[in-house]
Amino acid sequence: MLLSDEQKWKAAVDCDSSYDGQFFYGVKTTGIFCRPSCKSKSPKRDHVVFFDTAEQAQTAGFRPCKRCRPDLLKFEPKRETIEGIKKVIDEFYTDPKQLKKEIDELGISKNSMIRLFQDQLGMTPVQYINKLRIEKAKELLLNSQDTILSIALQCGFGSLSTFYRFFQHLVGMSPIQYSKLFAGKEDVK
């Protein structure tokens, strides 16, 4: 079904993502083109021209919007942001000071980061970090001769009691019980 210009205009003003890929709109005064779902300020109707493809818009001399990236097949800014945060956490989760520094450099507010994690991963950043730390601890308990205190510190826990509390909560047993059960270690310190 072909859309009329008025239907396209309504979709653009409503930022309706269900029309993404069906058409693009360009703003003559700025020389920028967008997806229908773009959250940019709505232009005046008489400044707008519609295109069937991104290539048509570019051929007509319009450049892609930096907010909605109509030049990309798929644009998921939340997913890209989460992947960036996860990459930092995955690299620095055992070093709390460095992790805080790296996260601060991303320029994302704490509340935004928590909301993104909840929406995209179903957990908070702290829950994700503790999950990584406990997985690392389980690996070390099974494959190293290190003491439990040493393992707790290597995994980024500030104290043995914190380590024990999180391990018990996430694994359902103490680190000593886990080590004895799965690694057959009887002399765990």
Task: Give an account of the 3D structure.
This protein has three domains: 5-64, DNA Methylphosphotriester Repair Domain (3-Layer(aba) Sandwich); 77-126, no CATH class; 133-183, Orthogonal Bundle (Arc Repressor Mutant, subunit A). Helices cover 53% and strands 7% of the residues. The chain has nine helices and four strands. A four-stranded mixed β-sheet has the order 3-1-2-4. Strand 1 (24-27) and strand 2 (32-34) form a beta hairpin. The chain is elongated. Pfam families: Ada_Zn_binding (PF02805), HTH_18 (PF12833). Keywords: DNA damage, DNA repair, DNA-binding, Metal-binding, Transcription, Transcription regulation, Transferase, Zinc. InterPro entries: Ada_DNA_repair_Zn-bd (IPR004026), HTH_AraC (IPR018060), HTH_AraC-typ_CS (IPR018062), Me-P-triester_DNA_alkyl-Trfase (IPR016220).
Please give a handful of descriptors for the protein shown:
189 residues, alpha+beta, DNA Methylphosphotriester Repair Domain, Arc Repressor Mutant, subunit A, 3 domains, four-stranded mixed sheet, 9 helices, elongated
Q: Number of helical segments? A: 9
Looking at the structure, the CATH topology of the largest domain is DNA Methylphosphotriester Repair Domain
Q: How many E-type strands?
A: 4
Taking the sheet with the most strands, its summary is:
4 strands, mixed
CATH class of the largest domain: Alpha Beta
Q: Work out the helicity level.
A: 40-55%
Short description:
The chain is α+β, with helices and mostly antiparallel strands. Helix content is 53%, strand content 7%.
